[in-house]
Specification:
The chain contains 17 helices and 19 strands. The protein is α/β, with parallel strands linked by helices. Strands 13-14-17-15-16-18-19 form a seven-stranded mixed β-sheet, sandwiched between helices. A five-stranded parallel β-sheet has the order 3-2-1-4-5, with helices on both faces. Strands 10-9-11-8-12 form a five-stranded parallel β-sheet, sandwiched between helices. The longest helix is centred in the middle third of the chain and has 17 residues, at 276-292. The relative contact order is 0.06. The structure holds S-adenosyl-L-homocysteine.
């Protein structure tokens, strides 16, 4: 059976939902969302429907179904849990040439309610003609991921300016080209950046010029998260799909690079220690050069771009040179490593604050002043701290942290080869050496770090608190 797809304008029209439970409520809600005048017919209503009826949001037709309920209706949905009753509603509707839907019963339905991706006024509807609704839902999920959340605002803008667009581009081919520009050009990024007025101005300016204006390059600083591809945000994924050039760090693994648009140019700008400053300037120059050629540049960084990622410097540089720059946050190592090690960063009665710090400052500068960090009740998440574990430990102890303060070393956090070494502060330098901790690794210091031993759920745990390391493989859930 092949269905005829249809979007119905029910605004102000009376419609009927038969049934008074949760399913009926969801149907009524969707109909109300479309502006219909909803009557719900049932002997009893669930609490929420009853509240709506009380407030006049819906009308309640009390009692057992009779065909008379259908008088004056445009549409009916049977949503009771009695199949026979649902079929009777459908039969009565059919007799009156009224469209009826029976929930979960394709055979008795004259119309089907699709799974939808809502970017109103843009709506994508998915149907399997009742053959496999669960599969329709999976397709919907896929679309939900790939369709930009800015699309709704883009369509609304196009709707507002439709008359102007049509007047300016009377020829259909021209108009298509204009809409292509609207979809691929600078308007959508402005809408995403919550700058609706500017977006509208750019559109109006384009309508005044001859043909779509040339594309301006831009740079998006994108946080890739700690390495697990599932921790990439939807917005990051979209940026990777749209990029013409991707400049990425070493920390960004292959699983994430695999999501970059196939024909995008990829440049590994991984910085190794030594000669950093030169490398950073080179990155600045590359970003600028590509953006000035009109490309969409993604600067892809591990974790979050604004947490020990030099994203601030890059953004300031780009702004100084007049290049548009947006930022997509990522899950930073502290947050990801803590979660994947079962360590809450704050915990009532144990840690009221959390401090992200690095033991690896700007060339020439020393470690941060750890005086304030010596006090208990604060979790420290230390980036790039492994190489300087000795000095760091000495400082923390000197400033009053107890020798038995729990610590956890999270190596390769969120990756399949993750390893967590749990111990105490006084032992930290020894643990780093004995377990040959590699890069990247994050140090978590504070009472909460003790949770690593009881709450580990991912990767390998080495419990070195008793001084006697025991390797214990954990079930991998993610
Ligand atoms: N911008 C990044 C940090 C870059 S600095 C972020 O927000 O996470 C690099 C340091 O981050 C590493 O030395 C290490 O301390 C930490 N790090 C990054 N990814 C990590 C991971 N998967 N596991 C453990 N530590 C990580």
């Amino acid at each position: 059976m092949k269905l005829y797809p249809l979007f119905a304008d029910l605004h102000g029209l009376p419609v009927l939902v038969v049934g008074g439970g949760g399913v009926a409520r969801r149907k009524a809600e969707a109909l109300l969302g479309a502006g219909a005048q909803v009557t719900v017919g049932a002997p009893r209503l669930d609490a929420e429907l009853a509240a709506w009826a009380g407030a006049g949001t819906i009308r309640w037709q009390r009692g057992e179904f009779v065909p008379g309920w259908l008088d004056g209706m445009w549409l009916v949905i049977a949503a009771t849990d009695e199949r026979g009753l649902n079929a009777a509603v459908a039969a009565a509707a059919s007799e009156r040439r009224l469209f009826a839907n029976v929930v979960d019963d394709a055979a008795h339905s004259r119309f089907h309610v699709p799974a939808v991706v809502d970017r109103s006024p843009l709506v994508v509807a998915v149907s399997t003609a009742g053959a496999a609704p669960a599969l329709a839902r999976r397709v919907r999920e896929t679309l939900e991921r790939v369709l930009d959340h800015g699309l709704g605002a883009l369509v609304a803008l196009a709707q507002r300016q439709r008359a102007r667009i049509v007047r300016r581009h009377e020829n259909l081919a021209d108009r298509r080209a204009f809409y292509d520009w609207l979809h691929d050009g600078p308007v959508l990024p402005l809408l995403r950046a919550a700058r609706g007025q500017e977006a509208e101005q750019v559109l109006l300016a384009a309508l005044q010029g001859d043909g779509p204006p040339p594309r301006k390059g831009s740079v998006t600083l994108v946080g890739a998260g700690p390495g697990h591809p599932g921790l990439l945000t939807l917005q990051a994924l979209r940026a990777l799909n749209e990029a013409d050039v991707v400049l990425h760090d070493q920390l960004v693994g292959d699983a994430i690079l695999a999501m970059v648009r196939r024909d995008a140019e990829r440049i590994d700008v991984g910085k190794r220690c030594g000669g950093r400053q030169v490398a950073q300037e080179q990155i600045h120059r590359l970003m600028l050069a590509h953006a000035r050629e009109g490309r969409r540049v993604v600067r892809l960084k591990g974790g979050d771009p604004f947490v020990f990622g030099r994203g601030g410097e890059e953004m300031a540089f780009l702004r100084r040179h007049g290049v548009a720059c947006a930022v997509v946050p990522g899950v930073t190592a502290a947050v990801a490593c803590a979660a994947f090690a079962g360590i809450p960063l704050t915990q009532r009665g144990q840690a009221q604050s959390v401090c992200l710090l690095t033991a690896h400052g700007k060339a020439g500068s020393d470690m941060p002043d750890v005086q304030a960090l010596g006090r208990p009740g604060q979790t420290l998440a230390i980036y790039m701290g492994v190489e300087r574990a000795d000095a760091l430990t000495a400082r923390l102890l000197a400033h009053g942290r107890a020798t038995d303060t729990p610590v956890a070393i999270v190596e390769n956090g969120s990756l399949p080869q993750q390893r967590v070494i749990a111990g105490v502060l006084a032992e930290l330098p020894r643990l780093v050496r004995e377990h040959a901790v590699g890069s990247p690794a994050l140090l978590i210091v504070g009472e909460v770090a003790a949770c690593a031993t009881s709450q580990a759920w991912f990767g390998e745990l080495v419990d070195a608190r008793a001084g006697q390391p025991v390797a214990e493989p954990m079930a991998e859930l993610a």
